[in-house]
Amino acid sequence: MRALEAGIFLVGPMGAGKSTIGRCLADRLGRVFCDSDHEIERRTGASVPLIFAVEGEAGFRRWEALVLEDLVARPNVVLATGGGAVLAPHNRELLKAHGTTVYLHADPHTLWERVRRDRHRPLLQTEDPEARVAALLREREPIYREVADLIVDTDRRPPHVAARVIACGLKRISRVDHDA
Fold first, then answer.
1. Using a CB cutoff of 8 Å and minimum separation of 24, what contacts does 108-112 make?
2. Model confidence, pTM
3. Separation between Cα atoms, residue 58 and residue 43, nearest integer Å
4. Angle at the Cα of 163 (from 116 to 76), degrees rounded to 5?
5. Whose CA is closest to 80, among 22, 30, 136?
6. What is the pLDDT of residues 10-19, one digit of tens each?
């Protein structure tokens, strides 16, 4: 796949801004935006929380893997993945093989502030959801960093600024790849 058609995949924890920044980035680059969680809901006819309730996390991850296989192959896509999409080695291989992966990083406090009022986050239906946000980030951050071609901090950046930073970073990566 030519570099211009290759996908741009946003990974990171819930609350990092994958969907919001992804839309801004797609607009900026003239690409199509997709959100893997929304696509799962569209295909199954069920919300993510309902899938978790009926099929458990393992069932949801099966749906996620199926949808991801289709979405990464789309040309000119900016894809916001689910926070746990990188957990499966096969999913990481798909991301690496089909485009550029951008890890949207934010500190645990920022993530918590962004998601604390959202009642549709199955993994936060715990006794201490704030601690769960921090624990998920600790567990997953090494994987996000491993799969990332570019890491962008989203803590204090408005979405349009983060999209601009990503676009500049993608140009630098493209030049490096082209020169190699």
1. 108/133, 108/134, 108/137, 110/15, 110/154, 110/155, 111/13, 111/14, 111/15, 111/16, 111/137, 112/15
2. 0.90
3. 17
4. 110
5. 22
6. 999 989 999 9
* Phi/psi at 63 (5° precision): -60, -45
Q: Taking Cα atoms as reference points, which of 147, 116, 119, 149 lies closest to residue 134?
A: 116
pLDDT recorded at residue 18: 96
Residue closest to 137 by CA, chosen among 113, 105, 91: 105
Structure tokens at 100: 């550029």
Buried b (16+ CB within 10 A) or exposed e, 15-46: bbbbbbbbbbbbeebebebbbbbebbbeebeb
Give me 7's structure tokens. Answer: 């996908």
Q: What amino acid occupies position 54?
A: V
Residue spans of the domains in the chain: they are: 7-179
- Position 2 scores a pLDDT of 40
φ, ψ of residue 83 in degrees (nearest 5): -60, -30
CATH assignment, 7-179? 3.40.50.300
